[in-house]
Amino acid sequence: MSSPEQNYRSLEDGIHTDLKDRMSYGNYLQLPQILGAQRKLSEEHDEMLFIIIHQASELWLKLAGHELEAAIDNIENDDFPQAFKVIARVKLILSQLAQSWSILSTMTPADYLKFRDALGPASGFQSYSYRKLEFLLGNKNAALVKVHAHDQAVHRELTRVLGEPSLYDRVLRKLSGAGFAISADKLERDFSQPYEADDSVSKAWLAIYQDPERYFAFYELAEKLVDVEDAFQNWRFKHMYTVQRIIGNRRGTGGSSGVPFLKRALDISFFPELFAIRTEL
Question: What value does the mean pLDDT of the chain take?
Answer without folding.
Answer: 95
